[in-house]
Amino acid sequence: MSTTSSPCIRLCVIDPASRLCEGCGRSLQEIAQWARLSEAERLAVMALLPERRKAAGLVRPPSP
């Protein structure tokens, strides 16, 4: 069994302004296509997420 990299934190809410997931910062299209992406493609998207979330004003809730 292989492990698939994912930024999902199980806070799946789409921000209406940015149209990005408030938890991970991915678009709906990226979420839908995630399983079909190669590991290299997933890692490339994940590298963009922190800056994308910051630009969209998405702030993660504090960790428990």
Secondary-structure blueprint:
Blueprint: H1 28-33, H2 39-56
Q: How many beta-strand segments?
A: 0
Low-confidence stretches: none
Radius of gyration: 12 Å
> End-to-end span in angstroms?
30 Å
Task: Give me the number of helical elements.
Answer: 2
Considering DSSP H and I runs of 4 or more, what fraction of the residues is helical? 25-40%
Average per-residue pLDDT, rounded, comes to 90
What sort of overall outline do the alpha carbons produce when their principal axes are compared?
A: globular
Task: Note the run of SSEs as H and E.
Answer: HH
Number of domains: 1
Strand content range: under 5%
Structural class determined from secondary elements? mainly alpha
Largest sheet: none
Question: Can you walk through the features of this model?
Answer:
- This protein is mainly alpha-helical.
- The protein has one domain.
- 38% of the residues lie in helices and 0% in strands.
- It contains 2 helices and no strands.
- The longest helix has 18 residues.
- The protein is globular and about 30 Å long.
- The termini are far apart.
- The model has no long low-confidence stretch (mean pLDDT 90).
